[in-house]
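User: Teach me something about this protein's shape.
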Amino acid sequence: MSIVDKTIRQLIHNRVHDFTDLVMEVNATPGRFAALELNANEFSLIVVKAGSQYVFSAALPSEFVTDADALKEVEAALSGARRLAGGAQ
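Assistant: First, the predicted structure itself:
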């Protein structure tokens, strides 16, 4: 595995940790709920806000998804979830 691949995988790993932080932040806000589902191929973040449910998901690297494509999906999902959460870091 090249240094680029290792770096991308580490970035994906870091972003998944960002999602767990976001879940804790959302759950600390009254009237909101968030849950993170993670498996070997993908993850999903479910946020309930003002009675509406929002789902953000992305594929993780696999034989069908390149590391770079997975990183793009993860970052897009994280960006959308942060916007919904009100700019949470």
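Now, about its shape. The chain has a mean pLDDT of 90. The first helix runs from residue 3 to 27. If you'd like, I can walk through any region in more detail.
User: That's plenty for now, thanks!
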